[in-house]
Specification:
Blueprint: H1 10-19, H2 29-40, H3 43-52, H4 54-65, H5 69-77
Length: about 80
């Protein structure tokens, strides 16, 4: 994954962390479904969703594929890191 840090708001980080069971707090129903879709989508559809919802797309990709992604999202959610 790129070393460039995506722009992810604290609320988005918290929602994605909750989805992956790593802290944060739950999103509303629609947003949780969006996170689930991005998480489960194939590469083509994930790219389409991430283009439309870049903050959630970047956060899900960070959580799934970056070895430090969860820690980065936790820092963002706590306001300890700007993203």
């Amino acid at each position: 994954m790129s070393t460039k840090r995506p722009t992810i708001p604290a609320e988005v980080a918290a929602h994605v962390l909750s989805h992956f069971g790593r802290g944060g707090y739950p999103a509303g129903d629609w947003t949780e479904l969006l996170i689930t879709l991005i998480d489960r989508a194939d590469m083509v559809n994930r790219a389409k969703l991430a283009t439309t919802f870049p903050d959630y797309g970047d956060a899900v990709l960070l959580a799934k594929y970056d070895e430090n992604g969860i820690a980065v999202l936790q820092a963002i959610a706590l306001g300890e890191a700007a993203a």
